[in-house]
């Protein structure tokens, strides 16, 4: 065991060399801390940019969604209008193709479709202010 102690004592570094090693370790730690600080700052900048980009993309998505909703609403209104026109045209077609004969007060006969067409024309003239 004494041999081990002697070996340790003989292999121990002199105080000046130990001080140099501590200075090197200290300098290495300072460089490492500065590097970590810089990396932390970079990560903060990257996280902020990512957050801004996420918010920006989210607002674009919301805008596109609202535009699509607006378009859908417009298309639905057009479809409703077309359906109403289709119903009107169907009713007109039914009226125009009516083959029944109607006797007027003067004894003359006209088809129900002609009488209805005359009535529609009078209504339109009244609406247009003639």
Report the order of strands and helices: HHEEH
Q: SS-based structural class? A: mainly alpha
Query: Count of DSSP E strands?
Result: 2
Count every helix, treating DSSP H or I runs of 4 or more residues as helices.
3
Q: Termini separation (Å)? A: 130 Å
Major β-sheet annotation: 2 strands, antiparallel
Low-confidence stretches: none
Strand order of the largest sheet: 1-2
The portion of residues assigned to helices is: over 70%
Question: What does the radius of gyration come to?
Answer: 48 Å
β-sheet strand percentage = under 5%
Tell me, briefly, the overall form: rod-shaped
The whole-number mean of residue pLDDT values reads: 80
Structure overview:
By secondary structure, the protein is mainly α. It contains 3 helices and 2 strands. It is rod-shaped, with a radius of gyration of 48 Å. The N and C termini lie far apart (130 Å).
């Amino acid at each position: 065991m004494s041999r081990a102690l002697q070996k340790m004592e003989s292999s121990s570094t002199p105080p000046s060399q130990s001080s140099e090693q501590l200075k090197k370790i200290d300098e290495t730690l300072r460089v490492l801390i500065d590097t970590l600080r810089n990396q932390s700052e970079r990560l903060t900048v990257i996280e902020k940019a990512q957050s801004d980009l996420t918010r920006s993309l989210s607002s674009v998505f919301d805008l596109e969604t609202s535009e699509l909703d607006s378009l859908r609403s417009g298309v639905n209104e057009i479809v409703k209008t077309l359906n109403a026109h289709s119903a009107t045209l169907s009713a007109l077609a039914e009226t125009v193709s009516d083959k029944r004969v109607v006797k007027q007060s003067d004894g003359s006969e006209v088809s129900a479709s002609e009488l209805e067409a005359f009535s529609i024309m009078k209504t339109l003239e009244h609406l247009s202010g003639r």
